[in-house]
Amino acid sequence: MTSTITAASPAKSATPIDPVFRQIRDLVYKVCGIFQLEEKLYLMADACGRRMKHLSVRTPREYWDLLTAHSSREAELRQLLNEVTIGETCLFRSPPQLDALRKVILPELVQEKTKQIVKRLRIWSAGCSTGEEPYTLAMNMLEESDRLLKGWTVEILATDLNDRSVETAKAGVYGDYALRATPELFKRKYFVQVDEKKLEVRPEVKKLITFSRLNLQDDSRMLFMKGMDLIFCCNVLIYFDGPSKGKVVNHYYSNLNFGGYFFLGTSESLLNLNDNFRLVHFPGSLAYWKPSLKSGKL
Questions:
Q1: 35 and 152 assigned to the same domain
Q2: Tens-place pLDDT, residues 120-149
Q3: Boundary-marking domain end, from 62, 87, 112
């Protein structure tokens, strides 16, 4: 999963920026924790410009009024957030993470939870973008359904801030670019042909996943994401500043079951954010472990 800031030509950064866009940048930060540095402010101006054109709004000041004083301000802010965040990812993006998951982590979790009455595994794909990550996870869980996870219930919750990304994810239709890293075996087994250029995820994969919109800075909503065994939040926190990252990571720690694992993107870390997790090294990847009750160190 990746939620990223919309890209634009670096040359635009030299263009004078209306100071109202700084106010809008700060409003977006307050609402969802995404912050753009001064040299990237043109990206916010571009996103606002697209909405202004759509609404036939002439000036940034008028658009600011729509975002703050108009009766439809909350709806328009959601539309702006859809412009500010885009998804850039693909299925099977990180094979080392998947290897660690299936070869080490899943057997460990199954052994840890095997004495429980309800054999259930709960996974959260936070910042799922257009669905590539949760579908990848679902397919890998199905590969274990006749072996390691036989008799188990798997629930995957997939969330993102961007409404349009969530709707695209629910459809589960992908072209060559999104499928570029997908093994041929998985294409044949878990997709159906839509047309000569696109494949759709099969129903048995879709039924494992619940997609919804979620703002990671919404404390009240985050409190309801309890009981996770695995959390994936790859390449999302890089768009937050320190305080916003810290708040989200603390929620992840609270929402993760003891003995559960937390994955970040390959270029991310929890350095100076949270000391409660234990860093675990796997071949080609890292994960963060929430010590189990019987480990003796919480």
A1: no
A2: 999 999 999 999 999 999 999 999 999 999
A3: 87
Closest CA to 133 of 230, 44, 214: 230
- Closest to 29 measured CA to CA, from 81, 68, 67, 73: 81
pTM of the model: 0.86
Rounded Cα distance, 10 and 14, in Å:
8
Residues 205 and 272 in one domain: yes
For the stretch 97-108, pLDDT in tens is 999 999 999 999
Structure tokens at 286: 């890292």
Boundaries of domain holding 259: 95-295
Q: Single out the residue in 40, 66, 87 at which a domain terminates.
A: 87
